[in-house]
Design goal:
The chain has 126 residues and is of the alpha+beta class. It has a single domain, classed as Beta Barrel (OB fold (Dihydrolipoamide Acetyltransferase, E2P)), CATH 2.40.50.100. 19% of the residues lie in helices and 35% in strands. It is built from four helices and nine strands. The chain has a six-stranded antiparallel β-sheet with strand order 1-2-3-9-8-5. A three-stranded antiparallel β-sheet has the order 4-6-7. β2 and β3 form a beta hairpin. The protein starts with 7 loop residues before the first strand and ends with a helix.
Length: 126
């Protein structure tokens, strides 16, 4: 299982990569594997301020639709438009080209309360 150590993880299987006052959010390798082939990603919250653990979009896979939640509070700055034509990037590169949104982080200390790669690894192995 691929769990980069430079990321933080939520119990809902989102990842967070903070870069200064901004951050990238996506779903984990484990989550994309559980969902299967991703066919559509919907994010209609660009420009909105979203609180931690609030839904910001949905991912549609062949078998199911899953909500995606904010790991930390912030404003949704950008949706990865590559996912409009190639949502399967989430399957092939969940931590790179398959990022879902870029946000402006409201309170970086909220990231202290989400999981490290080690703790997330323990969660998904349980």
């Amino acid at each position: 299982m691929n769990l980069p150590e430079n990321l933080k993880y939520t119990k809902n299987h989102e990842w967070l990569r903070i870069e200064g006052d901004e951050a990238y959010v996506g779903i984990t390798d484990f989550a994309q594997g559980e969902l299967g082939d991703i066919v559509f990603v919907e994010v209609e919250t660009v420009g909105e301020e979203i609180e931690q653990e609030t839904m910001f979009g949905t991912i549609e896979a062949v078998k199911t639709v899953s909500d995606i939640f904010m790991p930390v509070s912030g404003e949704v700055l950008e949706f990865n438009t590559k996912l409009e034509d190639t949502p399967e990037l989430i399957n092939s590169d969940p931590y790179g080209e398959g990022w879902i949104i870029k946000i402006s982080v409201k309170d970086a200390s909220e990231a202290d309360n989400i999981l490290s790669s080690t703790d997330y690894g323990k969660l998904i192995e349980a």
